[in-house]
Amino acid sequence: MTLRIDFINVYIILTSICYGISMFGWNGKLLRVDLSSGKVRVEEIDKNILLKFLGGRGLAVYILWRELEPGVDPLSPLNKLVISAGPLTGLPIPSSGKLVVASKSPLTHGYGDGNIGTKAAVNLRRSGFDALVVEGSARRPTLLYIEDGKAELVNADELWGLTTLETEMRLLKTYGSDAAVLSIGPAGENLVKFSTIICEFGRSGGRPGIGAVMGSKKLKAIVIRGNQDVPLHDKNEFLKLSNEAYDHIKKDPNYSFWLRQGTMSTIEWANTNSCLPTHNFREGIFDDASKISGNFMETIKVRQKGCPYCEIPCGNIVRYEVGGVVGEAELDYENVAMLGSNIGLGDLHKVSDLNLKADLYGLDTISLGNVLGLTAELSERKVINDTVEWGDYKRFKELIEDITYRRGLGDLLAEGVRYIAYKLGGDVSRYAMHVKGLEISAYDCHAAPGMALAYGTSPIGAHHKDAWFIATEIKMGRDLYSREKVERLIWMQNIRGGLFESLTTCRFPWLETSLDLEYYLKFIYLATGVKYSWDDIYVVANRIYTLIRSFWVREYMAEGRGWSTLMDTPPARWFEEPLTKGSLAGSKLSIDGYKQMLNWYYELRGWDARGIPKKSTLHNLGISEVIPVLEKFIKLSD
After folding, report:
1. d(CA 611, CA 219)
2. CA torsion, ordered 372, 374, 380, 381, to nearest 10 deg
3. pLDDT in tens, 325-353
4. What global pTM score does this model have?
5. How would DSSP label each residue in 26-92?
6. Which of 416, 443, 470 is the last residue of a domain?
7. Which of 181, 204, 371, 395 has the fewest CB atoms inside 10 Å of its own CB, making it the most exposed?
8. Are 513 and 254 in contact (CB under 8 A)?
9. Based on the structure, what is the number of domains in the chain?
10. Residue 225 forms beta bridges with which residues?
11. Nearest to 194 by CA among 367, 73, 335
């Protein structure tokens, strides 16, 4: 193992020398913006870093690790916002229009990121940059305008207070329809801890409060235009391979059904398999699932929407009507499950309206559904005096307003479920559904230990993006607590969260239309001229996951929060309160089985029994500079 990784480090150095004169695939530049001073400058990105971390998430965590002071307040001017692309971002291959937005999270106080699929990804690359770093804080609302290697800061007083839709419409009118707009809504302005960045009227990114980071910096929006080509190692072969990949996608047997329902087909699937979150993750079956399903969605769908270069668009645009008012919203599985079954609302028209409200205000729909579900349960248990009943659309809509503007109960709810549990005390923490402070996304895990472990070990908190393990788990056996399952989970994390989040492209062509992963190694080579083997990719992914874990440990120790295996453990509800409905009634997680799987996970990652990277692992992964930093706060295992 050590010999193999040392070889890779040597390979990276030699490759850097070989390709040091010309750079392909990567632009090799970042734009740094200091809002406090108003200074903007362009910087070269060390080629060794790009080779070691690829881009996207890998580059983002590298920058945050290197540049943030340990224990920094996430909402202070000292925190930084990183928007990062990878070597395949914005290139003419399937679903390449993705950007990573990252920062120290105000919701979790650890590493936080999300990806957002829009032409902002293409425009950033065509403007000549692989990444944007925003630091400091402006005195008044500000707009950042980027075009073809240059940038300027513009007064945005007139935009402050506007919804994301109003903001984007005004800016497109000013800067042209070819511009891309990343903006925050009133939720981000008011520092709601699960506010996000919005683009293209409903594309949302940055669940762990990245919108609040922008709000704390008084950065209302970023407008990007670009006309430069990204240099490719072998453009002709690249385009030829891309055409081949597109042909494969269109011929896949699942293609036509995907175009009809996208991720919305998961509602029926999850309900059938007892993992559809219902009533704050009490159950996995919802009696009114058919009323919010993909089949019902098709009856009100008017069109679909995808990212740049996408042939499998996942955005289902529906036209809904509530109380005589007609609107349009973009739906997928996660937002419908969390604003539907999880809060007991079995009416897709009303779910769509809540979803649109969240997009306009810049709220993460997954965390929002958790917060509303917890609130309904708190009301039911008489922990709070406010009356909030399951399925009460009108009351939920009022609460969304209150959360956005931090009014009354909404001021508490705007902090997220972990803080709500801390503030209210008692046994609320047992059913406040989060891991590391990030609310759990839309899969109930009473009978899914592997998916529970995926949530427990996700690098940003409880999110499905890194490892949608539930389908694999059903095939392997839901009551199985095995090392083989953990090995498969780590492989999946390395591909989904390591490879795709750093290239940075969408994983759906691989997942939904069976596009062979080998295409991506070929794309990397034809774009950059650098040949990565799968062993190399796994080392890169392990390096990224281990640096993210090091970031979490550093920040929690610096803040005096401490660190333990509880940080990687889901809420007590799944271990203590069995399901009561369906064929899996009586199911709950085994705490001993989960602990054993977690121990295997640590061992396979090269982390110690506390879940902290070992010195030998950090050294072997080529990030030994992490060791003295962590040892200022905690003794590392050898």
Report:
1. 36
2. -160
3. 999 999 999 999 999 999 999 999 999 99
4. 0.96
5. ---EEEEEETTTTEEEEEEPPHHHHHHH-SHHHHHHHHHHHHSPTT--TTSTTS-EEEE--TTTTSS
6. 443
7. 395
8. yes
9. 2
10. 147
11. 367
